[in-house]
Amino acid sequence: MEQSRRGQIIDMLKQDPLTLKGLAKLLEVPLKVVEDDLRHIEKSVAPAFKLRQMPPECEQCGFVFRHRTRYTRPSRCPKCKSEHISDGTMQLVAD
Ligand SMILES: [Zn+2]
Asked: What is the pTM of this model?
């Protein structure tokens, strides 16, 4: 049987940190689908694993977007208004 997409995401995130965009590209599905999968995955892998997110950063002023509740990249920096924001990465780590 073919492995489910969520199973694939779990395997990939256990191996390497990836961006939301990177996951969507690898799986050839829209970002929204990956976001939805991640929400389910976070619950299903707990408490053995947790999704560790490296926050996006403003490439202009270095502002770090901590405490994000979404997986997507913010569109603009609240501090300097730059739209050059790096993608945050995520990885599944044993808790
Ligand atoms: Zn900034």
From this structure: 0.87
**DSSP conformation class of 94:** E
Ligand 1 centre to CA of 71 (Å) is: 19
- Residue 84 C-alpha to ligand 1 middle, in angstroms? 8
Structural domains in the chain plus CATH codes: 5-94 (1.10.10)
Dist. CA 95 → ligand 1 center (Å): 32
| End-to-end CA gap in the chain | 29
What tens digit of pLDDT does each residue of 55-92 get? 999 999 999 999 888 888 899 999 999 999 999 999 99
Question: How far away, in angstroms, is 78 Cα from ligand 1 center?
Answer: 7
